[in-house]
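Chapter review: from sequence to fold.
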Amino acid sequence: LILTPETQQKQHEDKQRPPQRTRLLRGRNAFSSDRRSSPWFPTSSHQNNLFNKDTPRAFLWVKSATIKIACCWENNKKIMHNLVYLALFTIGLLDATVATASISATAKLLSSIGLGGLAAHKQNLLDASAISALSRLTYWVFQPAFLFCSVAKTVYTANNNIATGAAGLSLRALWLMPAVAVVQIVMGTCIGRLLSKLFGLKDQDEIRNVHMCTTFANSGPLPLIFADALFASSYPGIQTQVAAGISFYLLAWSPLFWTFGKMILGTEDDETETKVEEGTASSPYIGKRLMKKISSGFAKVRSPPVIGSMTGLAVGMNPFLREIFFGSGIATPLYSSLQTLGTAYLPAALLVLAGSLVGGSSSNNTSEDDNKRSTTTSAKGIGAIATSRFLVSPLLSLLAVFWIRQLSWMDGPTKSILTFLCLMEGCMPPAQNSVILLQLAGRTEQAASMAKLLTMLYAGAVLPVTILMTACLSISGILNLV
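The token string follows.
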């Protein structure tokens, strides 16, 4: 073979050229330099032989997820190793008792929602009318009875401890819990507005849902479930004092929820306001106009849960009423009946949540305005709520803890219990009563959207709540009291 001078010159230049670095294979090519020989990445020539219309879709999903995980691991080995170490470190921090309580409480909640969902699928069992009736019963009967009994018993027990010299939270310490509730609600409102802008939320209904979930946490049923799971068997005295603190926390939480919560979700009665404005305009006297404005403002605050809380506080503070309702007084049967009705509060609220989740979207009697208001919270909205409830709010609750620890008139056990209460209330998921509030306003589609959002948040709250509750026990030192 005779080479031309040009070919000989080219071969000489190729020999003199430095060797090129082999291009790093990334992504799918990281596993095989020849994609044709790799069974994981078939080319289009034989892809139809492997995957056809009869291939199960679940298999395709599993294979696609496996490929993505393997690619992510191959390209980010250091990051993935650090995440594994962080997960193992987190599992090592978890307390077995707290983890069991968190998982059992959340599993109980989700199981109740599932059973309610099965009932909602049954025709004419948990339909729209039944959900509406349950919402009204919860609002007018069950929750007021629960708040009346819990607040009255808490104040009665505190006064009895003062008279007998028994151990327990004093009324002075208990009155700090409503102040903590107000501070946490105000902080939740500010956090919700800030995170809505940071996450770039645009839809107004989604912003309302995010504000509601960041402002009001599940401050009653879920903390009581945790208190019962953590302290009832081994520390019954601590469990009683924690339940008393939760009851006083609800003294401020409940009025704000049923007034300020309506303003956040936009469920105020516009017709009532219009009538008041018309009457005010027609009245020639300034005094009458002022009284009508005051009465309209008082009507917003005068809700059955608020009345139940205030009545329970009056019964617990008045010695004459305490003798009538507790012990062997003539009103003891009335108190027992209200206590029985109060136990139906949590099951009824769970049924409303489950019924709204399953049957809300299939309701046929929703108005056109209600359908326009229905929305689905995006991933950004869920991220904003989770960031607020499980990161920012617990950190800000530590500020209240530092303030409580500086109070000189409070003894060590009282500081530990109040510290635990403040931290626990700051790391709870959003309130489930938001669904009841929307159902009472007749917004079934919006209630269904809120129910779906809460179900996703509660299902994903198991791990963060378990970690946060472990931190609450460790920081407060409440388990060292006995």
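Two observations follow directly from the output. DSSP finds 23 helices and no strands in the chain. The two ends are 98 Å apart (CA to CA).
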